[in-house]
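Here is the promised in-class demo. Please do not try to memorize the tokens; focus on the logic of going from shape to residues.
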């Protein structure tokens, strides 16, 4: 069938010993950037995404279009679709899975709890079940989240710190993913690596994230809410630029051990690995807004609310020495440089560059 042909073509590596990688969440923010970078260096990349409407799916369709131009086919299916997943693994001997599909967002969970359970727990288990039965068994690298540190106050966060106080259902499902990964590694010898991303931002980012809707609201002259913790401390995040995260994902794929097959065989099981991928330089939300104001050359209407939002943690800060030691991960983009690239993309994509230039002054370099 032509579907099969496209799937095979997409996932065939073009470099010697190249990987054949299934990227889940390939039409999303991090997934689309990773898929393109992997393809560019000659790996075979097949995408999977359900194109859900959690945020504006026209962004996902635009990414699918670009991926298509680079011969990356995106299968439109849900992680929970056993038949489709099984068929993909029957057709393609994937060496790796980069699993980035998930229900993201912290506050959406208050209204839609089961969407987190379905994608982040059931969907993950479904993928692991199929990976464990596949021949060869692929190595799996997947996105956990800095949110697993929850209300922890020991800073910066190291992988050995406690993660037993998730502040949102999203965080709890990411933490559950880590426990589930441990089990599949232990019983079935699946090679699994979890990456705790810290607030990723950049071009083609998620419209539900603060830097994105602040940009939109500032440009539209709407007021923005800045939350402070109950003790009036500023909320701060270890904002990490997308290109640094892509390098981290590729580093983790390149150093992933091979899966060792079912338990009972004599080989030692591959190790479960968990890494922080952050920027190691937390920035307050107030500072984020002032950087945006200067890039957009517009004064924001700020509304400070002295109350934490449910599900948000006050502060995140990554220690990345483990990822540095194991695969040379070193973030190189500071927030001002990364936001400049984001703002350039934003005004270009939404076609408002001329308005910004004319009415509010030039987008500064
Ligand atoms: P995203 O929402 O842009 O991408 C996720 C993609 O997965 C979307 O395109 C969505 O349609 C797809 N998807 C969701 N559920 C699915 C399902 N059940 N079956 C198939 N496809 C499904 O989010 P992102 O920011 O690119 O995040 C990628 C990963 O990184 C996620 O696992 C997220 O939890 C994690 N993460 C992101 C951040 C961040 O700041 N962006 C921080 C920590 C962790």
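The designed amino acids, position by position:
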């Amino acid at each position: 069938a032509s579907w099969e042909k496209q799937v095979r073509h997409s996932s065939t590596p073009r470099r010697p010993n190249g990987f054949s990688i299934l990227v889940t969440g390939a039409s999303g923010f991090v997934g689309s950037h990773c898929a393109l970078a992997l393809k560019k260096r000659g790996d075979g990349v097949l995408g999977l995404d359900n194109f859900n409407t959690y945020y504006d799916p026209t962004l996902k369709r635009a990414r699918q279009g670009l991926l298509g131009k680079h011969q990356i086919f995106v299968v439109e299916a849900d992680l929970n679709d056993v038949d489709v997943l099984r068929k993909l693994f029957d057709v393609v001997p994937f060496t790796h899975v980069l699993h980035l599909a998930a229900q993201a967002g912290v506050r959406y969970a208050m209204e839609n709890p089961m969407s987190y359970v379905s994608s982040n727990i059931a969907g993950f288990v479904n993928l692991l079940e199929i990976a464990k039965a596949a021949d060869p068994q692929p190595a799996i690298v997947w996105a956990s989240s800095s949110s697993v540190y929850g209300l922890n106050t020991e800073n910066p966060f190291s992988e050995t710190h406690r993660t037993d106080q998730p502040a949102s259902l999203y965080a709890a499902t990411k933490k559950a993913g880590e426990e589930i990964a441990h089990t599949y590694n232990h019983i079935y010898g699946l090679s699994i690596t979890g990456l705790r991303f810290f607030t990723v931002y950049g071009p083609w980012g998620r419209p539900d994230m603060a830097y994105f809707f602040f940009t939109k609201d500032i440009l539209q002259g709407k007021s923005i809410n800045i939350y402070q913790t109950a003790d009036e401390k500023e909320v701060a995040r270890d904002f990490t630029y997308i290109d640094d995260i892509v390098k981290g994902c590729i580093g983790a794929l390149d150093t992933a051990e091979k899966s060792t097959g079912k338990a009972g065989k004599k080989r030692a099981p591959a190790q479960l690995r968990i890494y922080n991928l952050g920027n190691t330089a937390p920035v307050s939300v107030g500072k984020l807004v002032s950087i945006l104001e200067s890039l957009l050359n517009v004064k924001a209407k700020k509304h400070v609310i002295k109350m934490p939002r449910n599900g948000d943690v006050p502060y995140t800060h990554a220690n990345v020495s483990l990822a540095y030691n194991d695969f040379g991960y070193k973030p190189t983009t500071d927030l001002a440089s990364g936001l400049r690239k984001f703002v350039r993309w934003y005004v270009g994509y939404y076609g408002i560059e001329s308005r910004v230039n004319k009415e509010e002054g030039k987008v500064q370099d």
